[in-house]
Amino acid sequence: MKQRILKIALDTPLDQLFDYVWLDDGASSPPRPGQLAMVPFGKREAVGLIIAIEDTSDVPPDKLKPVLSLRAQLEPLRPDWIALCSFAADYYQRPLGEVVIPGIPKNLRAETTVSLDRALKRLAGKEHAHDPAPANMPPLNAAQREAAEAIAAAEGFAPILLYGVTGSGKTEVYLQAAARILAKPENHDAQVLILTPEINLTPQLEANVRARFPGVDVVTLHSGLAEGERLQHWIAAHLGRARIILGTRLAVLASLPALKLIIIDEEHDPSYKQQEGLRYSARDLAVWRARQLDIPLVLGSATPSLETWHHARTGRYRELTLRERAVPDAVLPAIRLVDMERDKADGGLTASLRAAIKKRLDQGEQSLLFLNRRGYAPVLSCESCGWISNCVRCTAFMVLHKSEHRLRCHHCSMEQRIPRACPTCGNVDLQPLGRGTQRIEENLQHLFPEARLLRIDADSTRLKGSAQAAFDAVHRGEVDILIGTQMVAKGHDFRNLTLVGVLNPDTALFSHDYRASERLFAQLMQVGGRAGRAARKEDGNAAEVLIQTRYPQHPLYAALMAHDYDRFAAGLLEERQQAGLPPYLYQALLRAEARELDAALAFLQEAAGMLQPPGITINDPIPMALTRVANVERAQLLVESPSRPALQAYLREWMLQLRAMKSRVKWSLEVDPMDI
Ligand code: ADP
Ligand code: ZN
Ligand code: ZN
């Protein structure tokens, strides 16, 4: 019997492939790279992915173990998918197995294959529809048409920034560009990947896409899918049957054999960054994937990330612009600042904002109040002794959730009943400090008892389907005043909404995080962009955005009022260049966690001293801003370089040494960190 050596990736922290033997008995079909295999690993059985097949192994023959079984039912994962995962593993300094195995649906990895067979059979039996003819496509305006045609005509690797103001009809451009690409005769089996930042935006987009492409299989991929659904959708994409794949960031790692176009809506959005495990940027991986496959990539935004904007300005990305709103006669809302030094807020609302809400109520129009803080109040306090509701496990406050009679830590999710009296001095008159969405809602109930209010935040939408139900109610006009966090700020096309009130944006102006102002601008532009999306009814009654601030002179607000992202972005980029910050500098962050802060810092100090290559700046280890979470102390070490290859080479070497250290401190590395 001839034996082959299978090089297999397993989901373990060991950064290597594992060798297993496969004996050719002449009867069963031979293994292929990209296939899944069950293998013995330690005391258990594990599923692995065959990366390569060779004749020899460096492992002594008596140590080599045989493969237990092959997963032959599934079409093997293709080399270009494995190459994408290998790139992600190398770039983000993770073992390949930790990228490829979690990237495959759980049911495919499970030990029994019975259920898998049944799934697969059902899919194989299904009729395979492909009629790319779109339906119900509204006529595009000139700018949209130009953009859609340019995208469809792009050849080879073509990164394109679609820079369009809120409501300029970017979605329509994506769909019609996709239609043109799917209709090309050479693309009879083509696939299009559309990424969206918010899981709550997928139903709206999905409905849109299905209506436009009745003859094409459309699937979604996001973390809200049940395991069975995820399996079906993943396989439909993997077999090439699904032609349009809509998803959140994780969809960038889907297996797509015939991918011909990638679209990233709201490309600047921070949620494209995975914040745990493999901390990848879906946007950056999408750019890599488009280059690898030699296909166009559309990055859509009204406020592009500075990285993308910089590439567009230096000519590396092509820029297509939509300057006006798409709905005829709809114009951008007027943005006004409310000076909170003059117009003092009562219950979080200034007189100007209260009057504006009243006016919209009288006119039968909807208002949206934006406050990026859920709960009733961020902290409960005792005025007589100074006690405040600190979390005992975190360097954070316990947030007051009044209706549930609870204090809740948003970092470690610890909960307790609201104390009847101060735990230190016994004072029974404990006071909430500050305001969250629940408190604003309560205040609005008093002010406008006849208005129909709806709060949308992570608390109000915990149950599956409840977010969708809430958004549907807004679209149906069953809500007069919507109160929400960033969940409501993105993407939604509310047609009867004419007022946006921003309650408390100032804290981000003075953040230690250098990205805070870029984010604040994008967020305000986005939430403001929810107003006035339908045609204006009469003059003098335009939609408006009211921003309550103590710093009306701040240049960020001046640029915002002028809807002038160009000037703002140019200014920020200049500052970044002078200060030596991204995108002019590349960064990686080593994080350490331990019971004692000193242990975490000592580990980082040792890590910092390991290598001193030229061109790499190794900063001092420091405690993280949120130092303690769930009784774990956290510290970080930032390394920087003006050269990405130099940083990558350093990280590779550094990782080898760090892994060899076998420290008891838990650590992780993040490449291109967003929050530092
Ligand atoms: P964006 O994503 O740029 O903020 P959307 O794609 O949500 O904007 O479009 C805003 C609104 O304009 C939507 O209601 C959409 O149906 C409408 N729209 C888009 N293109 C056109 C068009 N050519 N004619 C009329 N309405 C359009
Ligand atoms: Zn007290
Ligand atoms: Zn806590």
What can you tell me about this protein's structure?
This protein is α/β, with parallel strands linked by helices. The chain has four domains: 2-102, PriA, 3(prime) DNA-binding domain (GIY-YIG endonuclease, 3-Layer(aba) Sandwich); 142-322, Rossmann fold, CATH 3.40.50; 334-377 and 434-574, Rossmann fold (3-Layer(aba) Sandwich); 586-671, ACT domain (Alpha-Beta Plaits, 2-Layer Sandwich). It is built from 18 helices and 31 strands. The strands form seven sheets. Strands 11-12-9-13-14-8-15 form a seven-stranded parallel beta sheet, sandwiched between helices. Strand 19 and strand 20 form a beta hairpin. Helix 5 (142-153) packs parallel to helix 6. The radius of gyration is 27 Å and the shape is globular. The N and C termini lie far apart (57 Å). 43% of the residues are buried. Bound molecules: adenosine-5'-diphosphate and zinc ion (2 copies). Residues 138-141, 144, 164, 166-172, 326-327, 493, 533 line the site of adenosine-5'-diphosphate (ADP). Residues 138-141, 144, 164, 166-172, 326-327, 493, 533 line the site of adenosine-5'-diphosphate. Residues 151-322 form the Helicase ATP-binding domain. It is an enzyme of class 5 (isomerase). Keywords: ATP-binding, DNA replication, DNA-binding, Helicase, Hydrolase, Isomerase, Metal-binding, Nucleotide-binding, Primosome, Zinc.
